[in-house]
Design a protein that fits this description.
Layout (H helix, E strand, L loop, with lengths): L2 E10 L2 E11 L4 E5 L6 H8 L7 E6 L2 E2 L8 E4 L11 H11 L4 H14 L15 H13 L5 E5 L7 H16 L3 E5 L3 H7 L2 E6 L2 E7 H7 L4 E8 L1 H9 L3 E7 L4 E6 L6 H9 L2 E9 L3 H14 L1
Parallel strand pairs: 3-8, 3-9, 6-7, 7-8
Antiparallel strand pairs: 1-2, 1-4, 4-5, 9-10, 11-13, 11-14, 12-13
């Protein structure tokens, strides 16, 4: 594991922000840190960045206790942006890169590459206050990754972006992972989680309530729902299916018929396919796995009821 937080407890006066929270972030992966507002995500991110410290627990970076100097091996893009409005964009980018340890010449060279890649070179000599929210976000993304840290932490990185630029940023985040960078990705957008995350941890009420690989979690939460299309005797198939399965929906179309149903414990997908083919041609057949959005809502609501 590149990073581990073990049994982290953090309290503010009478409020417990983190209660025995543990996460394990695999090397060269994108790790989704999820949870509703007020769950404790920001408190954990601040602790990882050594902005604050835990009341108890252990933080490990590459198997060793996290040290103050490790902050230079971490890049952090907070949800709330912080650029100096009166400075020129290029000057500020160079200044922030220097704070990460780059020389002026090295910073200028690397920044030019990224400004060209993001097609924002014409903004180099303009003031930050003239930037749109999305444009400022691009600048902060660049200065967050410019020193090539081992661990990147993105908190709602797509905030303020239109769909085209969201796709641009997603592509770059995936490229960073494929190049060996480990990423902690905090967001409320579950569609983005499904697109980019390899692993997730879900925090609610200051506790970790779910952690694991995205694919495995979706498998664990599946409800044996299947959807298929067939060309054949719709009425006969529907009557046959209703005696064995719970039909969620059935739609009679012009050139095909669409069904969604739930398998019982005593039936397999093979049983279903064989029954369909008795009444016509099977055109399409798939198991429907739950979305991360559905899992998020189900887990949070279940814990809140306890």
């Amino acid at each position: 594991m590149l990073f581990e937080a073990k049994n982290i407890i953090k309290k503010y006066a009478e409020h417990t922000a983190l209660n025995d929270v543990s996460i394990s972030v695999p090397e060269k992966s994108i790790f989704g840190l999820l949870g509703p507002n007020g769950a404790g995500k920001t408190s954990l991110i601040r602790i990882i960045n050594q902005i604050t410290g835990p009341d108890s627990g252990e933080l490990l970076f590459n198997g060793k206790k996290l040290q103050p100097e490790d902050v230079h091996r971490i890049g952090y893009l907070p949800e709330e942006r912080g650029l100096y409005k009166k400075m020129k964009v290029g000057d500020q980018a160079i200044y922030l890169a220097q704070l990460k340890g780059l020389s002026t010449d090295h910073a200028r060279k690397e920044l030019k590459k990224w400004f060209e890649k993001f097609e924002i070179t014409n903004w180099w000599n303009k003031k930050v206050e003239d930037l749109s929210k999305g444009m400022a976000q691009k600048i902060q993304f660049i200065v967050t990754i410019i020193h090539k840290p081992e661990l990147l932490i993105f908190d709602e990185p797509f905030s303020g972006f239109d769909p085209i630029n969201v796709n641009l940023l997603k592509k770059e985040i995936l490229n960073l992972r494929d190049g060996g960078t480990t990423i902690i990705f905090s967001t409320h957008n579950m569609a983005s989680v499904e697109e980019v995350c390899d692993h997730i941890a879900l925090i609610n009420n200051a506790e970790t309530i779910l952690e694991g690989k995205v694919g495995e979690i979706k498998e664990d939460f599946k409800q044996h729902l299947f959807e298929f299309q067939m060309d054949g005797d719709y009425d006969a198939l529907k009557a046959d299916l209703s005696t064995h399965f719970t039909i969620e929906s059935a739609l009679k179309l012009d050139k095909a018929h669409k069904f969604r149903l739930k398998l019982g414990e005593n039936h397999s997908s093979n049983d279903l396919a064989q029954m369909i083919m008795k009444h016509g041609q099977l055109l399409n057949f798939q198991e429907l796995l739950p979305s991360m959005n559905d899992i998020f809502i189900d887990m949070v609501q279940s814990q809140n009821k306890k």
